[in-house]
Amino acid sequence: MALFEPPFVVDERDRRPPAGFDEHVEALVAADRRAEAVTYFMTQGIGMPAAFVWGMRLMPRTWSSMKAMASTIPYDVAIVGDTRAGKPLPADRWHAVLAPTLVLDGGKSPEGTRRASAALADILPDAQHRTIDGLSHGAVVMAPKKLVPALRAFYLA
């Protein structure tokens, strides 16, 4: 299994969603305020600069796709749950994951993102962590070919 930048917050010094975040996202989606839900999730949940979100709005296909998927945001939030609390990941939650795992992150990603990736790799029974220089969280969409060498090495080992 290979993962890229799991959405965890494992240190209280790192940026976390504001209090009431989950409920606010659910209310926006329930009110069919999709653009606001996406904007709120991106800026307050993920920490994306508002200017980047504004720029996404200038890409009609991208923004349209994001709004179409807005109804899934509460599920994303629920699945991640308390792993965004700024506390160490609970080891008992992960001990049964026996698949060899590669946890990747980008060297240009925030320190907290890299801390979370390393923390997950540390508690999984058979995992390794690797940082790929020059990449950030958008690499999966913006530069997927730059992930290929690490993935190839892992899967062919």
Strand order, sheet with most strands: 1-2-3
Which fold name is given in CATH as the topology of the largest domain? Answer: Rossmann fold
Q: How much beta, percentage-wise?
A: 5-15%
Which structural class do you get from the secondary structure elements? Answer: mainly alpha
Number of separate structural domains: 2
What is the H/E order?
A: EHHHHHEHEHH
How would a crystallographer describe the biggest sheet? 3 strands, parallel
Number of strands: 3
Helix content: 40-55%
Question: What is the structure about, briefly put?
Answer:
22% of the residues are buried.
Explain what the structure shows.
By secondary structure, the protein is mainly α. It folds into two domains: 2-12 and 87-156, Alpha/Beta hydrolase fold, catalytic domain (Rossmann fold, 3-Layer(aba) Sandwich); 21-83, no CATH class. It has eight helices and three strands; from the N terminus they run βαααααβαβαα. The chain has helices at residues 21-30, 34-46, 50-57, 60-68, 73-80, 111-123, 139-142, 148-156; strands at 2-4, 101-106, 127-132. A three-stranded parallel beta sheet has the order 1-2-3, with helices on both faces. It is globular. It starts with a strand and ends with a helix.
